[in-house]
């Protein structure tokens, strides 16, 4: 006996050189009587038998694995290729019932607002409504992984150190810029208002370096970091560089004077452009002042009764 698989079609097969058997098979038939006609015209044969075997269904579920964050939706699809009328039922592999967030219909399993307890394996079963004798057939289980939602990323914020410094002309100066937790951040320095850096200043991997400061270097500078998510630069607070004025020698007035003995004498001292300079008097060579000479600490030397012991340079 020859066993063949058939689905709602008329087939013809030549069993021998002279004998042809024509069969009309319906889907639900398993045993079919055959009408045999021979080329010899001898009439009908005895009834024959044909067994029809059905290829087993192979339900599929897609995707096999899905990863979502808490609060996101997840969906799986179940289907049988070439069988659009199949019925489907979903269940958890661990046997736990579905909660209100899970919906399954028309072959789809949908989880609305996934939570951590929705993680697990799910199985789809397919049945044929046209053949109640066929048992349900399971598709391979699918896996749903639900993870906690990642906290929002903190914005990139560049930090600078020091925030201010004051140096003398000709001395070096340096500012450092970095982003906490991002050692490979893209950093750049510029003058405030996006001005170019002064001549001689170097931007070196987050460090702003002045090898020898001049008065033209004084000002405020901004460190900026590139944020790849926004595609923009984020600025730091301004860092300020102050440059001391060149030191001015104190001035004396009068530079020389002659007075009568026992008369008062005065000497005034000041620094041009620096009214708050701290001033003090001493004899030349750093010797202390003679008796009865008074230094007020604000640039005035007074002698009320000038004597010969007061002669000299101050």
UniProtKB/TrEMBL annotation:
Q: Where in the cell is it found?
A: Membrane
Q: Which residues form the Ig-like domain?
A: 59-138, 158-235
Which terms in the GO cellular component ontology are assigned? cell-cell junction; plasma membrane
Q: Does the keyword Membrane apply?
A: yes
Record-linked InterPro entries: Cell_adhesion_signaling (IPR051275), Ig-like_dom (IPR007110), Ig-like_dom_sf (IPR036179), Ig-like_fold (IPR013783), Ig_sub (IPR003599), Ig_sub2 (IPR003598)
Give the membrane topology, semicolon-separated if more than one: Single-pass type I membrane protein
Could you list this entry's UniProt keywords, alphabetically sorted. Disulfide bond, Glycoprotein, Immunoglobulin domain, Membrane
Superkingdom is Eukaryota
The GO terms this record gives for MF are: cell adhesion molecule binding
Principal localization reads membrane
State whether keyword Flavoprotein applies. Answer: no
Please name the GO terms of the biological process aspect recorded for this protein, alphabetically.
Answer: cell-cell adhesion
Q: Which PANTHER family match?
A: NEPHRIN
Name used for this protein in its record = Ig-like domain-containing protein
The species this protein belongs to is Panagrolaimus superbus
């Amino acid at each position: 006996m020859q066993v063949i698989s058939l689905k709602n079609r008329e087939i013809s097969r030549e069993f021998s050189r002279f004998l042809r058997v024509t069969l009309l098979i319906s889907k639900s038939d398993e045993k079919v009587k055959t009408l045999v006609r021979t080329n010899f015209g001898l009439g009908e044969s005895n009834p024959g038998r044909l067994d029809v075997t059905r290829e087993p269904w192979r339900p599929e579920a897609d995707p096999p694995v899905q990863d979502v964050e808490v609060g996101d939706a997840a969906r799986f699809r179940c289907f049988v290729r070439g069988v659009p009328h199949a019925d489907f039922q979903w269940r958890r592999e661990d046997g736990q019932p579905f909660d209100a967030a899970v919906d399954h219909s028309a072959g789809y399993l949908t989880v609305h607002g996934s939570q951590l307890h929705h993680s697990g394996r799910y199985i789809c079963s397919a049945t044929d409504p046209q053949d109640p004798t066929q048992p349900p057939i399971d598709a391979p289980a699918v896996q749903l992984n639900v993870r906690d939602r990642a906290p929002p990323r903190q914005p990139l914020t560049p930090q600078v150190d020091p925030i201010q410094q004051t140096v003398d002309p000709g001395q070096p100066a340096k500012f450092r810029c970095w982003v906490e937790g991002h050692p490979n951040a893209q950093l750049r320095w510029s003058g405030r208002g996006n001005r170019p850096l002064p001549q001689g200043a170097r931007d070196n991997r987050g460090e702003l370096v002045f090898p020898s400061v001049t008065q033209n270097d004084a000002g405020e500078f901004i460190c900026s970091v590139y944020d790849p998510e926004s595609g923009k630069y984020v600025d730091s607070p301004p860092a300020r560089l102050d440059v001391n004025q060149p030191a001015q020698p104190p001035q004396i007035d009068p530079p020389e004077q002659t007075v009568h003995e026992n008369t008062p004498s005065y000497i005034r001292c000041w620094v041009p452009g620096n009214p708050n300079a701290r001033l003090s008097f001493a004899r030349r060579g750093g010797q202390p002042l003679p008796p009865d000479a008074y230094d007020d600490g604000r640039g005035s030397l007074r002698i009320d009764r000038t004597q010969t012991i007061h002669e000299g340079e101050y």
